[in-house]
Structures are given as C-alpha cells and as structure tokens.
Design a protein that fits this description.
Elements (H helix, E strand, L loop, with lengths): L2 H33 L15 H5 L13 H4 L11 E9 L3 E12 L4 E15 L12 E16 L4 E14 L6 E15 L6 E10 L7 E3 L6 E3 L8 E7 L1
Antiparallel strand pairs: 1-2, 2-3, 3-4, 4-5, 5-6, 6-7, 7-10, 8-9
Length: 244
C-alpha cells in the first residue's frame, strides 16, 4: 500500500471514530433542548430601540453615540455632551406596541453621564377556553415593563466604560388566573479608541441576572395536582464590534 493510500485510510478511520463518539452526544443534546423548546422569559428585551440602530442592522455596539446606547452599550453614554431625550415606538403584529423613553444627563460633578430608561410592551388578548375556542367575550392584558438607570464615564482619553441596572416585570395574564414574574438585571459595556483615526472596538454584556420564575403555583383543573413554576433565564446578550 502506498503512503498516500495509507494516509487516506487512516484519515477515513479517524473521521468514522470521531463520528461514532459524537453521535451519542448529539442525541443527548437534542433531547435536552427539546425539553425546554418554546420556553423563555423577558424576550421583549431582544427588541432593539432607536431607529438609527435598527437601520444599521443593529450593528450599533461600537457606535452607540445617542441615548439608545443605554440598550446597546452603556459605555456610549459617556460620549454625549449635553442632555438628550429619545423616544422609541415599535408596532408589532397582533396589535403589540412597545414604547420606550430614555433621558441622558451629562454631569461634571459625577465625571460622566447618567441615564434613565422606561419601556412598556403591551397588547390585549381575547380569552379562549377548550369549550369556547373562538373567545369568551373577555379580554386580558399581557404586558412587559422595564425601568432602570445607567452611568458611564471616560476612564481615560481612549477608554469609555458604562454599567446599568434595570428592573423588569412581566404580567402573564394575571386578570384571568395567570401569574407575574420579575427580576433585576445588569448591563456593562466598554468602548476603546485605538488611536488610529476614529477606529474603536467595543463590547457589551446585557441582561445579566437571575432567572425569572413566575410567582404562585399551578393547579391542574383535571387532577388537582399542584406544581411550582419553573424559572427561565433572561435573554443574555453579548455583543462586540468595530467602528470607524
């Protein structure tokens, strides 16, 4: 057997061996993922704010030079030189609206910029049951709420850093027997100018915090069994980018 054929045979055996080892892991991963399919909490935090950021395809983490930076990268708030206010309105299908407002105030006394945000996503949903699949004539409100603040400063002439804390609250139809959930989440970010013109690199980590676990208990209408609700992690987002 020639050297080239021997090497090809060894490579084929190696691929078959790696595939055999990976197959059980793949099956286990699919099974584990299937158990939590379609379950999430606080997903409204994935809705970006600011028309400019959305227009840039959400590639805004290294730009972040307007009030919407409180969402994308809190470090960018340090680049604002005067008080600014921003409103954001988003219309989604199924009559879902998301309203958001941000206020930024630079402060020489604090050596940086302070920002506050408040947002509300809401919609009215028609109540249905197994016996009345076309509606009972009642409606209830589903809503998500976020409020928080952030602080950012120029750490050096090239480095901007920022951090924020926010409180989120979800009303999962408590008017018709649903539950609520809430949590405190943290954001942190940085922007570093390389000294090559306006080139800068940036990173941000947002929505870091404890899982959101609905309050109360669930009682089966058929068996009377009582269960506690599971908790689910918030949508943790890590972003990085380069701008010039």
């Amino acid at each position: 057997m020639s050297t080239s054929r021997r090497l090809a045979t060894l490579a084929l055996l190696g691929v078959m061996f790696a595939t055999a080892l990976a197959a059980p892991s793949a099956r286990a991963q699919a099974s584990l993922g299937g158990q939590r399919a379609g379950t999430s909490s606080g997903t409204f935090l994935r809705i970006g704010i600011g028309a400019r950021a959305a227009g840039l395809g959400e590639s805004f983490v290294a730009v972040a030079n307007d009030p919407s930076a409180i969402y994308w990268n809190p470090a960018g708030l340090a680049s604002l030189q005067r008080r600014e206010v921003a409103f954001s309105h988003v219309d989604w299908p199924a009559d879902i609206q998301y309203e958001h407002i941000t206020i930024v105030q630079p402060s020489q006394k604090l050596g940086g910029s302070v920002a506050f945000q408040i947002g509300l996503l809401s919609t009215d949903i028609a109540e249905t049951t197994e016996l009345q699949p076309f509606g009972t004539g009642r409606t209830f409100t589903y809503s998500d709420f976020v409020v928080g603040g952030a602080y950012a400063r120029r750490w050096t002439d090239k480095l901007l850093v920022g951090a924020g804390l926010k409180y989120i609250y979800e009303d999962l139809g408590k008017d018709v027997g649903g539950t609520t959930t809430s949590a405190f989440l943290f954001d942190v970010g940085s922007i570093y100018y390389l000294g090559l013109g306006s080139v800068r690199i940036a990173t941000s980590l947002t929505n870091f915090g404890s899982e959101l676990k609905p309050s109360g208990e669930w009682v089966s209408p058929y068996t009377g069994e009582t269960r506690n609700y599971d908790g689910y992690d918030p949508p943790l987002m890590f972003r990085y980018g380069v701008a010039f």
